[in-house]
Amino acid sequence: MPWKCRRLVIGTGAHGKLPRRMEVRREAERRKVEPLIVPTSAAVEELPPILYTAGTLLIDLLFSYYGGQIAIRKTNSATRRLLLASILYVPLLFFFMMFKTT
Questions:
Q1: Which of 4, 25, 67, 93 is least enclosed, having the fewest CB within 10 Å?
Q2: What's the pTM value of the predicted model, to 2 decimals?
């Protein structure tokens, strides 16, 4: 169990009917980790927006790569790739924003 955290999110199933283990709660309190026991749908919202972060980082790196390629090689194919990357950038950014939780 990952105890190097400040808060431990524990999902109890879609309808909150999964068993809650009291020894986990006691161990969390002993280690000064805040246990958050909620239905799984609410637990997912508590997780960091890893898909948003990873996705936006990936498309930023790809866009920067194609921008650098056109600076190094001034060819028509490099220009087309940068144009395609710029056309796909905003829709992909909006797609990954759907996974961002606030």
A1: 4
A2: 0.46
pLDDT single digits (tens) 65-93: 888 888 898 899 989 988 888 888 888 87
> Rounded distance, CA 1 to CA 16, Å?
21
- Cα–Cα nearest to 58, from 31, 93, 19: 93
- Tokens for 28, please give them: 């969390």
Please state the domain count of the chain: 2
* Structure token digits, residue 83: 């144009």
Report the SS3 class of residue 38.
strand
Higher pLDDT, 28 or 82: 82
Identify the domain containing residue 63 by its residue range: 50-97
The per-residue pLDDT for 76 is: 92
Does residue 102 sit within a domain?
no
Residue 2 within any structural domain of the chain: no
